[in-house]
Design goal:
With 362 residues, the chain is of the alpha+beta class. The chain contains seven helices and 14 strands. It has two domains: 221 residues, no CATH class; 103 residues, no CATH class. The two termini are 38 Å apart. 33% of the residues are buried. Keywords: Signal.
Length: 362
């Protein structure tokens, strides 16, 4: 696994034209050192443009100084939507490392920004941003804030009620369609919770520990946050692990499947989370155990012809595969966040289960 490289080992890395420097003429808020406008006493604002996270035209998704892009190694599937993710923090505060497997502990005033968009949208083969989700930390608690983009792609408006957006696009030469779901505030809470606490999911050190191509050149993402003053590097271990990329076919099938489940399912299938009533636990560190993956574990709810979550050697009799490939809202997994099956992951799951040594679970 890739190891985290400390900044001291990167002194010979030459950085030019740093995107951390404000553009000439770009107004900078002296209290934050950034053009971003984020008053915790005023948020959520009625429009996305009020925050000034992006340069104009906003649809270009070019961040202003201080808004740092990031990309997890493994990402959550959302009906094939593309996502651009960013972090912004006020001046003078830093996130703290907790563990490889827990999200960074961000301070109050932090904004996590995620734009959801499609390329090659029918009929004009255009790009279209559907929504921007914000998580802003205030008084130690995360706020869920959604903005829905207009057809002109000039503005996004606050909408916490949720909505469905039919979308048709071309993916690898094939026309696909989905009834894309923009979640309500309460729907966000279904996945982003431990008991009644609102939590982050993606920004874990082991899922950020990779090189990202920033505007000013490639750099390890954790090191970028340290360099920009967003992460305290004093207590970071020198050997933070990087979770395997599930899309890399050079990795074993089981490793790829466990990585996918970690990113897409583990946040609900853990203690005190929404699906904690089931016995399976899908965090990467726990799926080395076949039982936690559901091997020969009875299904939690009746399914036609399915007795076990995983019937080793037989995907067609495995409850996990049945629910993962179902389009029935009463049985499909995940419960929310998708309206169509992730075909590539379904193929991987089928291959993985069928590769397991067959055994009698009775």
């Amino acid at each position: 696994m890739r190891k985290f490289i400390l900044f001291a080992l990167l002194l010979n890395f030459v950085i030019s034209c740093s995107s951390d420097d404000p553009d000439p003429g770009q107004e900078v808020n002296p209290s934050t050192g950034s053009p971003v406008i984020l008053d915790l006493n005023q948020v959520p604002y009625p429009t996305l443009s009020t925050y000034n996270f992006f340069k104009q035209p906003m649809k270009g998704q070019v961040p202003v100084v201080g808004v740092i892009p990031y990309e997890p190694i493994n990402t959550l599937f959302t009906d094939y939507a593309h996502k651009n993710r960013y972090i912004w923090m006020p001046q003078g505060v830093k996130a703290e490392y907790v563990s490889d497997n827990q999200p960074l502990n961000f301070p109050d005033g932090t904004a996590i920004i995620k734009n959801f968009y499609y390329d090659n949208v029918v009929p004009n083969n255009s790009s279209k941003i559907l929504e921007t989700r914000l998580m802003i930390k205030k008084n130690g608690t995360w706020m869920f804030i959604n903005y829905v983009w207009n057809e002109a792609q000039t503005e996004a408006y606050l909408d916490l009620s949720g909505s469905d957006v039919p979308i048709e696009w071309i993916e690898n030469g094939t026309t696909k369609s989905a009834n894309y779901r923009i979640p309500s505030e309460s729907e966000c809470f279904i996945c982003h919770k431990i008991e009644e606490e609102k939590v982050l999911i993606g920004p874990k050190p082991r899922n950020l520990n990779k090189v990202f191509n920033y505007a000013d050149g490639p750099m390890n993402q954790l090191e970028k946050l340290i360099r920009h003053g967003y992460l305290n590097g004093d207590n970071l271990p020198q050997d933070i692990a990087a979770i395997p990329d599930w899309t890399h076919t050079s990795n074993p099938v089981e490793v790829r499947m466990r990585s996918y489940l970690d990113a897409n399912c583990a946040h609900c299938h853990q203690e005190m989370a929404h699906c904690s009533y089931t016995p399976i636990r899908l965090d990467w560190d726990m799926t080395a155990s076949p039982e936690n993956l559901g091997s020969c574990v009875p299904v939690s709810e009746p399914l036609p012809g399915m007795d076990y979550t995983i019937m080793p050697g037989n995907a067609n009799r495995s409850g996990m595969y049945y629910r993962f490939t179902s389009d029935d809202v009463s049985t499909k997994m995940p419960l929310i966040g998708t309206s169509i099956v992730h075909e590539e992951a379904a193929e991987l799951m089928n291959e993985w289960i069928n590769s397991l040594p067959a055994q009698n679970c009775n």
